[in-house]
Amino acid sequence: MKKLFRFLTSCIIISILLLTTLTLWLFIPSTTDPYLHFPDDLRQNPLLQRNPDSPEAEGPFNLGNLMYFDEKSYIDGTRIKPGQDPYGKNAFNQEVSDDIPAGRQISDQRQVQCKIQNYQIAGLPATSVVICYHNEARSTLLRTVVSILDRSPPELIKEIILVDDFSDDIETGRLLLTIPKVQLIRTEKREGLVRARVMGANAATAPVLTFLDSHCECSPVWLQPLLQRIVEKRNIIVSPIIDIISMDNFKYISASSELKGGFDWNLHFKWDTLTNRDKQNRLSSIDPISTPMIAGGLFSVERNYFFDIGSYDKDMDIWGGENFEISFRVWQCHGAVEIIPCSRVGHVFRKKHPYTFPEGNGPTYTKNTKRAAEVWMDGYKEYYYAARPGARGFPAGDLTERKKLRADLNCKSFRWYLENIYPEMLPSTDQRIGVIKNIDNYCLDTLGHTSHGSTVGLYPCHGEGGNQNWMTSDKHEIKNENACLCADGTFTNLLITFCSDKPECAWDLSEHTVKLLNGNKCFTRSPDNTFVVLETCQDTPTQYWEFSSLLIA
Ligand code: UD2
Ligand code: MN
């Protein structure tokens, strides 16, 4: 009996030991290594086999026909279960995506002139493709990878670096490691796309970096035109035309080749049609399109150039704003940003973010865009603050390093950028921002009164904007943040009120006076420079005002 007991105890101990070793073996590499580079001998993937049918013949997709990747098992691992919302996890229809093979054919959307271009592959540098992702669906991620391998000359793809930005499912990336050229980095915590991309760029070894989102499909001959342009011009970031993959049915839809990237003063990205001036600057419809802004996610850049000009602002979190920062920076610091019409890559555009923002979506976007505005937009940042008043007091972190970068690179002004790269955005003369000051150097000041119906006063000009910052609009308004300066019902007092189309709120600032647009009443200061009232216009120093722009050259 005693013997049997001893035997059983040893069995249990041995089993526990075995189990612990197995668990350690399975999990230690995935939890302790900060950057989880998976060396070749760890590429043991249950989905990898030699293609049992024919090692020579075509696999499910072209991986040199050496390996067989069990796509079905990979996708089955995370399929939508009955009753689950197919849009729930990814904000696109995952059920449809999961049913579309990774190596599907897509129609060639290139213009005919593109198809007769002859790219000398031997003369082109190889690229590392960097794809960061957070909780991407397996089917879209796999299609991105497969489309790169299937539609690029093999010698031009050095490696595909997946940066798993702390996704819940670690296997989504790990299982792809059997695919040739695929490397994986995993962050230790959620970083956001900027820091994730920079990690990927740091690990990259090819002379050119190509960034893609994790739900893309590269078209035939997408890569050569991008690399060719980088050979022609080093100080450049180049983007393909971004075709649309429907978030509902995953159809590949051609995007217009006559668009460039732009923005509004909220710092929201938008597509603009090419102006006549843009068209005149191009000899052919396949010439590069000079673009004020990139959409953000899809571009190639020489690796050293990317780091020389300051990679990214690594204090930007999660999502958003980095495309403004990099576009302003490249243009202002003597480079160029272009869309190359012969290169086309599809992207699943969606209507909302499928993932969480630890600090909230709004605050994160405000922080990121404020960082871009503060460093690159000079006085024009006032237009941003006018459009987004909440950003003014918002903490955006330390900017010293990025400002130093701008100084070190001897970059041009934002005015230069607007005049030369995005003239459509140059504010018109009736949209000025500045101070309204009188002969004694006292400025019109809200004195911090912001509620509807409060009065304005005068205060020595301090040059800091804020309460003394006024913006004129094409509706002849004079505004501070979102409030307007209007006359009261008796046309004697000046009030800060809600903006409206009433004649009380329309002003003419042309003659060193501030005069009601439809009436002979002018801003008149009190003799002691404390308040302002409306009086009949006459030639007197108490009605002399100067609008002086805060905008720096
Ligand atoms: C666009 C860009 C995107 C980025 C963004 C502005 C295109 C086609 N897309 O928004 O690349 O520039 O504007 O910031 O130009 N991701 C992470 N970690 C995160 C959040 C996102 O790795 O915390 C990944 C995400 O999985 C995806 C990429 O970053 O691969 C871009 O995110 P998105 O697809 O949600 O952004 P999108 O296309 O709406
Ligand atoms: Mn995307």
Note poorly predicted spans. Answer: 21-66
Q: What is the tally of helical segments?
A: 15
CATH superfamily of the largest domain: Spore Coat Polysaccharide Biosynthesis Protein SpsA, Chain A
* Overall pLDDT level: 88
CATH architecture of the largest domain: Alpha-Beta Complex
Report the bound ligands by name, code or SMILES. uridine-diphosphate-N-acetylgalactosamine, manganese (II) ion
Shape: elongated
Oligomer: single chain
Considering DSSP H and I runs of 4 or more, what fraction of the residues is helical?
25-40%
CATH topology of the largest domain: the name is Spore Coat Polysaccharide Biosynthesis Protein SpsA, Chain A
Radius of gyration: 30 Å
Count of the domains: 2
Largest sheet: 10 strands, mixed
Give the CATH class of the largest domain.
Alpha Beta
Distance between the termini: 95 Å
Total number of beta strands? 27
Q: Helix- and strand-based class?
A: alpha+beta
**DSSP strand content:** 15-25%
Enzyme class: transferase
Family: Belongs to the glycosyltransferase 2 family. GalNAc-T subfamily.
Keywords: Disulfide bond, Glycosyltransferase, Golgi apparatus, Lectin, Manganese, Membrane, Metal-binding, Signal-anchor, Transferase, Transmembrane, Transmembrane helix
Pfam families: Glycos_transf_2 (PF00535), Ricin_B_lectin (PF00652)
